[in-house]
Amino acid sequence: MNQKPQDLRRSAAEKFIESFDQELLRAFQQSEAVTPNPQPAPPEQAVAVPRPAKTSEAISLSDLEAAISDIEQYLHEQHPPTSDDPQE
After folding, report:
1. How many angstroms separate the first and last alpha carbons of the chain?
2. d(C-alpha 25, C-alpha 17), whole Å
3. Are 81 and 75 in contact (CB under 8 A)?
4. How far from 11 is each of 1, 7, 17, 23, 64, CA to CA, in Å?
5. Per-residue pLDDT of the chain (88 residues; tens, 9 = 90+)
6. Alpha helical stretches, state H, the chain
7. Distances in Å between the alpha carbon of 53 and those of 46, 50, 56, 57?
8. Eight-state DSSP code of residue 21
9. Which terminus, N or C, of the chain has the lesser number of Cβ atoms within 10 Å?
10. Distance CA 34, CA 24 (A)
């Protein structure tokens, strides 16, 4: 047995997968034998996803920049930078 460890692992993995496939197939066959006529699942109903209402006014660039500034200010107040943090 002068196989490399990688070859041994690959061989063991292939044998495991083959064995697993056989066991899985056997389990499915046994399951079908126990319940030959399963009830069909009820059809799924489509769920309506609510969409946000469209507004007629667009967000201006200055409003967006102000909102970002407010968010940054809030985050800095909640987590003040330490001396280790680089300053922007």
Report:
1. 62
2. 12
3. no
4. 13, 6, 10, 18, 59
5. 566 888 888 889 999 999 988 988 888 888 777 665 556 666 777 767 676 666 556 778 888 899 999 999 998 888 776 666 555 5
6. 5-34, 61-78
7. 21, 9, 10, 12
8. H
9. N
10. 15
